[in-house]
Amino acid sequence: MEKKEAPKSSLDALVSLCKRRGFIFQSSEIYGGFAGFWDYGPLGCEMKRNIKDSWWRFTVRDREDVEGLDASIIMHPAIWKASGHLDTFSDPMSMCKGNCRKLMRADQIWDLFEESALRETLAGMLGEAGKIATWCKGKGKAVAPGLYTVQHPEYLEKIFEKLKTITDVKELFILLATPEGEPEVLPCPNCGGVMTEPRPFNLMFKTIVGPVEDPSNVAYLRPETAQAIFADFSNVMVSSRQMPPFGIGQVGKSFRNEVTPRNYIFRSREFEQMEVEFFIKPDEAVELLCGHVAPLTETTDLSEPQADWGWECWHKYWVEQRKIWLVKNGLPEDSFVEYWQKPDELAHYARACVDIEYRFPFGVQELEGIAARSDFDLSRHQEHSGKSMEVFDEPLKLAVKKLSDEEKAAFRAKVVAEWEARGKTAEAANIFIDRLFEGRYIPHVIEPSAGVDRMALAMLCNAYEEQKLIDEKGKEDIRTVLHLAPAIAPIKVGVFPLVKNKPELYNFAREIFKKLQRRYNCFWDESGAIGRRYRRQDEIGTPFCVTVDFDTLEKDGTVTLRDRDTMQQERISVDDLIRRLDDLILG
User: Fold this and answer.
1) Is the same domain home to 377 and 500?
2) 67 and 247 Cβ atoms separated by less than 8 Å
3) Cα separation of 270 and 38, whole Å?
């Protein structure tokens, strides 16, 4: 059977498959759904667990320098004051003053317009003033009732000549929405009404802790997992007997009251994060200990951490580690890109940030970020809690003791100059140096942060394919397949008896299934033609299928092992089956 590539399908086709085959459902669907919330079905929860388990093994369990944490979702509200979330964690929100009265994120209004049917309608009339006028007086009343020219068609006469020359659909939309004699407005992509000026909208969900609904009992569902790691930094460091450089990893739920959740599970109000806060020595401490800080160059070997690494090497190291994990779990390197944020895009405390972006069907969007956050977080919590977040580093204190007064003075002058060049005061630099000479410092942080749900969506989008198959008779068929990496696939192996009415064959297949089931998540299927059973497994991403047939019993005792991606089949002995599957699935 000849295989020909078919074009990648839209997100709609994937969404349909995910519902039909039990990956993802709309939350509360029987009550009309609940925007921004999603339920993971039997296959979806297995896939999601596999993603988290793979991340945990790679990032925490297989490393000696990362410890795990599972912190509470609701924490003391003072944490969010210290982190800045109470004051600054907000999105610009606008409300339509027209017919629909909808709330939207101001920075997403034009994105919503680009996706709307209204845009397509206006684009089809560019330069045709007569058509635009007819539409405003007719169909526009139903499609965009808030549009100024729909409500005031007499204004069309004054702008009629201008309508003939406009070649940009966005410019046309603004013109039709702007009231006569007023400055250009921001139009509503839903009804064409005028949007209000953007106002900040805090994204945290409030809740009440305790029986009394009082302002003093207000708490918040965490908007990120990172702050719990910072709050527990000292506890983890002491109890695990770690010292920087070391990290703390956490996988857990977060909640953000998104104004306009959109693009399926990409932006939702309840989601899971996989984050590491990796604590490193300040570059100044590395210089005192090693006599230098290793520069980051194109030839720097980032395969194994080194004692003389500064923040730049550590940051780039974690970027590379994240890329290794992505490729290992099925995302080809050419499917994502590194975006290094420009200085004016960085948070005020960040020294660098890389967004790993994936080409989703709805555009290139951030999949995860790796940020160099300096000592901002621990310093803020030290300031607000009054509890020390400093580390005492005995080797550092001993290294300083070996310096002469002249060397200390030269080091101090150098550091003060560097701090002043970064906009910090000499006073702050000298306080830092004094503590450093005592062997004490607040660690800096490298933060690789990924969303489980976004990762699942990227892997599903990348895996989904509709293949055109041409059989020997020239008949065309479409094969839907999810090319999920074996480690991520919800079902690892499908086991089939060729027929179910021959007890010896059936029972032998059941024995194999039970053996495999103790090692992997397997699926038993005894109904329908064998080709149809293969197709069902292809559609849910099962990488391997084992078929017990008549030759198994009557000839050599081998079974058929089928590969999902190549559709190739091979005979393999039952004794070798588990060993072979271990190699294929576990790598």
Assistant:
1) no
2) yes
3) 8
Quickly list DSSP for 439-455.
TEEPPEEEEEEEEHHHH
**Of 311, 310, 338, 308, residue with least CA distance to 323:** 338
For residue 534, give both structure tokens: 């293969």
Rounded Cα distance between 533 and 188, Å, is 49
Q: Are residues 232 and 317 in the same domain?
A: yes
pLDDT greater than 70 at residue 233: yes
Same domain, 99 and 69: no
Does residue 248 contact residue 276 with C-beta atoms inside 8 Å? Answer: yes
Per-residue confidence at 587, pLDDT binned at 50, 70, 90? Answer: confident
Dist CA 516 CA 573 (whole Å): 14
Q: Which H/E stretch holds residue 288?
A: helix 283-290
What are the structure tokens assigned to 238, written together?
């002491």
pLDDT digits (tens, 9 = 90+) for 515-566: 999 999 999 999 999 999 999 999 999 999 999 999 888 877 899 999 999 9
For 105-128, write each residue's pLDDT tens digit.
888 889 889 888 899 999 999 989
The rounded distance, in Å, linking the Cα atoms of 271 and 273 is 7
Q: How far apart are CA 6 and CA 477, in angstroms?
A: 11
How far is residue 510's CA from residue 504's CA, in Å, rounded to a whole number? 10
Measured in whole angstroms, how far is the alpha carbon of residue 306 from the centre of its chain? 29
| Domain housing 328 | 12-85+208-213+216-393+439-456
pLDDT digits (tens, 9 = 90+) for 236-278: 999 999 999 999 999 999 999 887 788 999 999 999 999 999 9
Rounded Cα gap, residues 317 and 305, in angstroms: 8
- For residues 336 and 375, state if they share a domain: yes
Sequence-ordered strand ranges (E) for 237-362: 246-255, 270-280, 336-340, 352-360
- The answer to whether residues 546 and 495 touch, using CB atoms and an 8 Å cutoff, is yes
Strands 74-75 and 66-68: unpaired
For residue 493, give Cα distances in angstroms to 20, 51, 246, 577.
20, 18, 38, 11
d(CA 78, CA 217): 12
Q: Which two tokens stand for residue 96?
A: 């339509």
Residue type, 575: D
DSSP 527: S
246-255 and 206-208 strand pairing? unpaired
Question: In 464-573, where does DSSP find H-type helix?
Answer: 503-517, 530-540, 550-554
- The domain tally of the chain equals 3
Are residues 507 and 379 both part of a single domain? Answer: no
Taking a C-beta distance cutoff of 8 angstroms, is the pair 472, 5 a contact? Answer: no
- Amino acid at position 193, single letter: G
Q: Which residue has the tokens 């201008």?
A: 162
Three-class secondary structure of residue 212 per DSSP = coil
Nearest one of 225, 221, 222 to 55, comparing CA atoms: 225
329-358 burial by CB neighbour count: b if 16+ within 10 A, else e?
Answer: bbbeeeebeeeeeeeeeeeebbbbbbbbbb
Q: Three-state SS for 257?
A: coil
Helix (H) or strand (E) holding 315: helix 311-328
